[in-house]
Amino acid sequence: MYCIFCGEQMQGSVQTCASCGRHNPVHVETGDPPQQEESPSHCDPSSSVSDIDLITHYFHQGHTYEVILDMLFSFHGIQYSTCTLKNRLKQAGLFRRKNYSSMRDVRSAIMREVRGPGQLFGYRTMWQILKQKYRLQVKRSAVMRLLSALNPTGTELRRRHRFVRRIYHSLGPNYMWHVDGYDKLKPFGFALSGCVDGFSRRILWLVCGSTNNNPAVIAQNFIHGMQFLGLVPMRLRTDCGTENGTMAAIQCTLRSLDSDYYAGSASHMYGPSISNQRIESWWFTFRKGRSQFWIDLFGDLQDAGHFNSSHELQYLLRFSFNNVLQKDLDECTELWNLQRIRPSRLAICPGGVPTELYSLPRRFGSRDCGFRVEEEELLTFSELGDMVVSCGDTEIQAYVEHIMEQNNLQSPDNWESALQLYLTLKEISGL
């Protein structure tokens, strides 16, 4: 049995998790730990999630008391005073500056992270991961000292970096969506596609596949994003690549009946990649904090003679790492959307947490600029799904699945097991 909140195994029939201390009304009795709980910001107000679970979730995400109260009222119809909220947090044993975790647990968690993509993290990002992923209560200054001792090379490299911000203007969330592809992992068979909301800097989607040059694939990502949010942006910003043509046509079609200044064809804007500030700037951050680990890992495989960019080896690498890499991208997206962006005197858009900026624009003197879109309207473009090519060669896929079944190989759950699976499949297939 596993805790439905932190995923740790629970012993016997107890309903209180020894790891996170939270009450479990039900148990998950499958052989695998449960998936990460869905963010309450998208839960139905009539769901069975208790108010203390909602408060705990928002508290661990790092929101202030005022934001927690606002989210409880806006999304779940729960109205508390600040005093009541603090009392509920006290009853749950949740404090901002008390009950700090042991340095042994903190050190162990940091060492675990720096073995993977976490070796690229600064102390602020590591502090956020310790709070949200490991539920550890620790001072940020302590994380800075530990990270400096455990990863001195990475600390020195970050100290030399200098970041210059650009000036950007936006009316509010969903005023401008910035869409672009990321090709730094393409030599190894992984093509990334992402979208950033210009006002809040919230990542709306970040997906990994075999291609980001197929117009149907890009359009499908766009449609899924609108279905999830239930709206179409006021404007869409892309580069001049042919893969964006179908998505641009969908945007202009959905906005053709509106009467605002940017209605119809004015709702989409082409331009060079170097001018697509929001997404290009985020790719730079992504390179420093995440993708460099994967580039180095796959590059080491290539240098060691285990990879040569052939179609067959690209498929084996993608088959072994795709789910692990997508899981890492999802974690990266969640952490980014919940980190606090510092305000800048050169920026017109306010600083803050991307999720808060996107969900509660009124707190920042702004408004939601998106236009509601019905599911029936999006179904008009559902036939685009038939145009999407498969993520690999069907013959190679059948052969690899046969090898997996014949040799009783398991799907990987981390980069180390994925690496071992790739080397095993390569040896068996004789490539």
Helix content: 40-55%
Number of strands: 7
Helical/strand content category: alpha/beta
Return the domain count.
4
Distinct helical segment count: 15
C-alpha termini separation? 41 Å
Q: What is the name of the CATH architecture of the largest domain?
A: 2-Layer Sandwich
Shape: globular
Task: Outline the structure in words.
- The protein has 431 residues and is an alpha/beta fold.
- The chain has four domains: 1-34; 40-91, no CATH class; 104-159; 176-289 and 342-387, Ribonuclease H-like superfamily/Ribonuclease H (Nucleotidyltransferase, domain 5, 2-Layer Sandwich).
- Helices cover 45% and strands 7% of the residues.
Identify the notable features of this structure and list them briefly.
431 residues, globular, 4 domains, two-stranded antiparallel sheet, alpha/beta
Topology, please?
Elements lengths: L50 H10 L4 H12 L5 H10 L11 H12 L8 H10 L7 H11 L1 H8 L16 E7 L8 E7 L5 E7 L5 H15 L1 E2 L2 E4 L6 H10 L13 E3 L6 H27 L7 H28 L15 H6 L11 E2 L2 H5 L14 H13 L8 H15 L2
Parallel strand pairs: 1-5, 5-6
Antiparallel strand pairs: 1-2, 2-3, 4-7
